[in-house]
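Collaborator request, handled under Task 6.
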Amino acid sequence: MNELREKAKELLQAGTVKVIIGYAEGTTPNRTKPLIVRTVEEADKLVFNKFCVNNLVVYLTRKEYKNKGTVGIVAKGCDVKAIVQLIQENQINKDDIYIIGMNCSGVVSELGEEFSAETIATKCLKCSVRTPHLHHTLIGAIEEMPKRNDHNFETMQKLEAMSSEQKWDFWEAEFERCVKCYACRQACPLCYCERCIADKSMPRWIESSAQIRGNFSWNIIRAFHLAGRCIGCNECERACPAEIPLSLLNRKMGMVAKKEFDYIAGIGLDTPTLVGTYDMKDNEDFIK
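Structure tokens returned to the collaborator:
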């Protein structure tokens, strides 16, 4: 923690960055909250621990920080995947970001919990970027991570075995709880449209009321918009007050992208985006 704070002070004193987006202790145990550090003195509030769950990359496309000078950000490996994706999609400039990469040994699935094998976030179980693959400074050490069964993947296997009608019934029951609060959209670093399709009224593509037809349209369209782009931070699911298992949709899309195109979102700046490229050799057998 001292290394993080000292690095932040160094960057601010030298004028290398204008601000640093990081984490501070929450107001109750086992919680953190986003912190915007603007002065050397504020850097002493920075922390990094098992409760640094938020994907802070969501702030990088906001007008308060975009194109306002170099922004420092404290980022886990999964967060860096979002940064890579945003750079590839020309939403942020690589030279405007200073990444303080944090070696990560897992975080809790929900703030307020004690960190253990039962509470470790699903996204951490098979993480391949515990050491951020893109960074300017790397801080911390890798520790052994608790292990448990991947219940999310087990649910996906059960869904795969269902008939089309059973899958429809499953998602109809899940989406029925949606209250159209759009917390999933607000928490997602890849939902950066200035005006979302859900907010357009001429024409209205998605019914605004929280009823089953509009709920289906919203959740399915958003899943398709993230196909080949979602980096698996699962912030949408964590933010959902109705506890809809949104990560099942996004993870399935990612598995298809890997299987059919050998593509993983947010891994390399030199890898063209999946949706933005076309190759005559692409497999088309799955198109029906």
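The cover message to the collaborator said: "The chain has a mean pLDDT of 91. Strands lie at 19-25, 32-37, 46-47, 71-75, 97-102, 137-139. Please let us know whether this matches your experimental observations."
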